[in-house]
User: Fold this.
Amino acid sequence: MVRFCTRYWSVLIPLLAAVVLAGFWGRSLNGVGIALVSVALVGAVLAAVYHAELIAHRVGEPFGSLILAVAVTIIEVGLIVTLMLSSGDKAASLARDTVFAAVMITCNGIFGLSLLVGALRRRVAVFNAEGTGAALATVATLATLSLVLPTFTTSEPGPVFSASQLIFAAVASLVLYGVFVMVQTVRHPDDFLPVEGGAEGDVVLDDDEHEERPTGKQALRSLGLLLVALVGVVGLAKLVSPSIESGVESAGLPHSAVGVVIAMLVLLPETIAAVRAARRDRVQIGLNLALGSAMASIGLTIPAVALASVWIEGPLMLGLGATQMVLLALTVVVGALTVVPGRATLLQGCVHLVLFSGFVFLAVSP
Assistant:
C-alpha cells in the first residue's frame, strides 16, 4: 500500500506542477496564485529528489549524482538564456550573479551540510579525497577563468571579455567539464564512490542492496518524470520571482538578493538529495552533487551565454567584484584544506556553512 501511494504521488505531482506552470505562465500572481505555485514548487522538488534517487539506484554511482546535477543545470541554463534574451541591458550581469550564487550555494551550503550531517551521524564524515580534490580543483579553475579574469583583462573596458576571450573561456569550460565527466564515469569512477564511515578507504558499491533494483522501464519512466519535475522547479521558481523581487524591494534590500533566493529554490533538489545521502553514510554522494552542480553551472552556462551573446545587445558582464572574489578565494582555500585529509568533523562543516552565511549576508547587506 505504501509503495502504491509512493508511486502514485511521484507520478501525479510532476504532472500537476507542469499543469500549474502552464496555467500561470505569463500571468501576474495574486495571493492565492502565489500559495498554489509555492505548494506546487515544493511538491516538484520532492518528486525530483525521489526520481533522481530511483535512477541513481538503477545506474549506480557516480552516474546517479551526475544525472541530477546535469539535468538541473541544463534547465537552469535555459532559463538564464531566456531571461537574458528578453531583458536586454538589464540582464548584463545575470549570468555572473546566477553562476556565482550557484557556486557559493553548492561549494559551501550543500558541501557544508553534507559534512555536518555525516559528522553528526558518525562523528567523522569520511569521503574520497582523490575524487573530491579533483572536482574542487576543476571548479576553482573554471571559476577563475570565467568569473575572475574578466575583471583584470584590458582588451575591453569593464569586467567583460572581448569576443576572442569569451570564445576561449567557453571552449575551455566545455573541455574541462567534458574531461572531468570522462574521468568521473570512465577512467577513475572509484574515486567518486562513497567510503564506509567505519573503515576509511573501503568503497561502498551499493548501500541499498536490501532494496529491489528498479527495472530499466521504471528508470526510463523516472527519467522522464525527473525532467518534468525539474522543469516545474525552475519554471515555478521563475513565476514566484516577481513576488520575491517585490518583497526584496519593499524590504529595502539590494537586487542581488533576488538572484540568491532564486538560485536556492532551483538548487533545492540537489540540497535535499545530498542531505539524504549523508544521513545514509554516503557523504561522498553529497559532495559529488555539490561540486558537480557547481562545475556544471559554470561549464555549461558560460558556453551557452557566449553563444547567446550573438543575439544579446549590450555588454556581458562576467567579472566578479572585490567582495565576491574574496569569498571565492576563501572558499577554494578552505575547501582544499577540508578535502586533503579525506575526513571531516563538525568543525569543517560549520566553517563552510558560516562561509555560506557570509555570502548570503553580504548579498543582503553589501
